[in-house]
Amino acid sequence: MEFVAHPRDLPLDITLIEDQPFPPISDERVGFVGITYVALRPFDNGRSVRITLEEIDPNFCVSGRVAWCNKQDDGYHIAIEFPTKEECYCVRMIEQLSQIEHYRRQAKVQGRRLNYNEAAAEWIQKFAASFPAFII
User: Fold this and answer.
1) Is residue 35 within 8 Å of residue 43, measured between CB atoms?
2) CA-to-CA distance for 80 and 84, rounded, in angstroms?
3) Which branch of life, at top level (predicted)?
4) Which label site among 8, 13, 56, 59 has the fewest CB atoms less than 10 Å from its CB?
């Protein structure tokens, strides 16, 4: 199972929701299963959450489950798993867009001005092969 660290410069809105029945995720499952994120508050393991990401897609809204939450010096490191095919696929696509936007912003800090397509082309060439695959 692989989690992708969501970039801190693209804030997620994470809201607790009524617990939803999700199928269990087997420890033997391989590939992309979710994201990690540094939140300002703790979340209980196993709780259902709704995630939105306004900066990338104002219509993006998906439900997941908190796999773990650990307090560290910079906040609460949480892992959110997406046990269904639909949510997992959708989040993986949005996460790639987030990684590309983060790459574009980092290039700007370094004095390089890239439009989104240029950043996407560079990110794909450098990082796409190592991005966790979607396997369910």
Assistant:
1) no
2) 12
3) Bacteria
4) 59
* Reduced DSSP (H G I as helix, E B as strand, rest coil) percent helix, strand, coil of the chain, to 5: 30, 35, 40
Is residue 136 in some structural domain? no
Token digits of residue 67: 């796999």
Q: Is the pTM of this model over 0.85?
A: yes
Residue whose entry in the numeric block shows the structure tokens 């574009």: 104
User: Terminal CA-to-CA distance of the chain, rounded, Å?
Assistant: 10
Looking up tokens 């908190």 gives 66
Query: Is residue 48 situated within a structural domain?
Result: yes
Q: Is 111 domain-assigned?
A: yes
Q: What angle do CA 122, 96, 49 make, to 5 degrees?
A: 160
The model's pLDDT over 76-106, given as tens digits with 9 standing for 90+, comes to: 999 999 877 788 888 989 999 999 999 999 9
Q: What is the pLDDT of residues 98-136, one digit of tens each?
A: 999 999 999 999 999 999 999 999 999 999 888 887 665
Which domain CATH number covers 52?
A: 2.40.10
